[in-house]
Amino acid sequence: MTSSATPASSDLESAVLEAVALGAPAALNDLGTLVRIPGIAWPAFDQTQLERSAEAVAALARDTGVFDEVRVLRAHIDDTDELGQPAVLATRAARNGKPTILLYAHHDVQPPGAEELWDSPPFEPTVRDGRLYGRGAADDKAGIMAHIAALRAVAETVGDDLELGIALFIEGEEEYGSRSFARFLSDNADALRADAIVVADSGNLDSHTPGLTVSLRGNARFTLTVRTLDHASHSGMFGGAVPDAMMAAVTLLATLWDADGAVAVDGLAVRDADTPPYSEQTLREETGLLPGVSPVGRDSILSRIWNKPSVTITGIDATSVAEASNTLLPEVSVVISARVAPGQSAHDAYRALEAHLRAHAPFGAELTFSDVDLGDGFLVDTAGWAVAMTRDAMADGYGVEPVDLGVGGSIPFIADLVREFPGAQILVTGVEDPHSRAHSPNESLHLETFRNAVRTEALLLTRMNAGVPAS
C-alpha cells in the first residue's frame, strides 16, 4: 500500500471504505436497473428508451444529495439544427478554494446483436460465476455506477465537510460517435471546467490489477468503393478476361498487410514505448483465438495492440451467399477501420491509407472514398498531481500496485476534452477487464473489480477534498 495518511485521515478513509462496502448491494441493484433499459443511440432503435436511461441516471445523481443542480440536456450536432442525444449534467460548486473534478461516463450502449449468441437475455442482468452479464453491464453503465457509488460513500462519510467541486457528465451517444460532444462541451464549458477529469470508460490489466490508461490509439474509419464495370456480366462468358470488382477489391485489400499480418502501409507511424509482460497464451485465453490460428504482427504482443497501427475490414457490401449467381460484380464496397498509433494525427494516417490504396489499385480499378470518420489518439502527461493521487488510490483501493496501460481501442472525444480544457489533468480509468467482452455477446462485469473501482474513486475524492499539492 502506498497511503501515507495521518491517523485522522486514515480513520476517515476507513469509514469511507466501510460505506463503499455497505453500499455495494444497492449499487449493483441500481446497475441492474440501468442494464434493463435498452438505451441505444442508433436511429433505428426506440429513442424513448435512451430518454428513459438519461432520466434514470439523473434521478440517481439527484438522490446522492451532492449536487447543486442536475439537468438532462442536449446539444446541437456541429452547426446543424439536429440535436444530439440526451446527456446528464450534474454540478456542485467548489468551496473554500478546493479543486473541481469532472466525472465522465456514458449511458448509451451498443446494439445487442443476435440474441441467440447470448447465454442470457442481453437486457436482463444475470449473475454467473462472480460476473454480471448484460449489455452495458461493463460498457459503460458500470462506469456510471462507480461514480454514483463513490459519491454516495463520500457524501455519507464526509458530510458537510465535502468542499470539493464536482461535475458529473454522463453522455448519451458515445457508442454512436459522440456527434454532439464537442458542441456540448462548448455550450456548457463553465459548468464542466475542472482541474481533473476522470473518464471511466477504459479497463484494467486483468480482473485484479488496476490500470491507468496513459495512451490510446486513434482511429480512421472510411468506406472504400471499388468499381471495374458499368454493369454486371456473365462470369462464364467473360471470366478470365474481365476483372470484376470483387477480384480487384480482394487483391487491393491484401496489400494492406505483409506476410506476417503486420500493417504494410507507408506513412503509418509506430510509437516506441515499453510494455509489460503478456504471453501468447494469455492472448489466446482472452480472445478465443482458435488452436491452429497464429497471432499476427511482430514484436511484443502488447506493442502490437497499444503502439502500432492496425487495419480491419469491418463490413462489406457484395452479393450474399444466398443470392450468389454466376455474375461478375461491377462494384464492391468495404468499411476499413484503422487504429492509429498514439502520437500520429488521424488525418495523416487517413491520407497515408488513401495514398496506399490509390497506388496499389489493380487493373486500373476506380476507387471512391466516403464516410470518413477520424479521431486522434491520446497520450497522458503523467507528471501531474492528479495522476500520482490516482495511482495511490488505485493501490489502496485494489490492494495491488497499478500499471500504466495503453489501449488498442480509441476514445476520440478525449481530443475534444483536451482542446476545450487544456489545463485539466485527464485520468482514463475503467471497470472492465480483458474478459468483459464489451460490444460483444455475453458482455459482463467482474463484480470484485467493480467493488475495487468504487473503493478507488471514493478514496480519490476523499483525498482531493482534503487538499492537493501546491503547484
How does this model look, in words?
It is a single chain. 34% of the residues lie in helices and 22% in strands. The model is unreliable at 1-7 (pLDDT under 50). The protein has 471 residues and is of the alpha+beta class. The chain contains 13 helices and 18 strands. Helix 3 (141-158) crosses helix 13 (447-466) and helix 11 packs across helix 13 (447-466). It starts with 6 loop residues before the first helix and ends in a 5-residue tail after the last helix.
Provide a quick synopsis of the model:
By secondary structure, the protein is an alpha+beta fold. It has 13 helices and 18 strands.
SSE arrangement:
Elements: H1 7-35, H2 47-63, E1 69-73, E2 87-92, E3 100-106, E4 126-128, E5 131-133, H3 141-158, E6 165-171, H4 181-187, H5 189-192, E7 196-203, E8 211-216, E9 218-227, E10 233-234, H6 235-238, H7 245-253, H8 280-287, H9 301-306, E11 310-317, E12 327-328, E13 331-340, H10 346-359, E14 366-375, E15 378-379, H11 385-398, E16 403-407, H12 413-420, E17 425-432, E18 444-446, H13 447-466
Parallel strand pairs: 3-6, 3-7, 7-17, 8-16
Antiparallel strand pairs: 1-2, 2-6, 4-5, 5-18, 8-15, 9-13, 9-14, 10-12, 11-13
Helix pairs in contact: 1-3, 1-13, 3-13, 4-12, 11-13
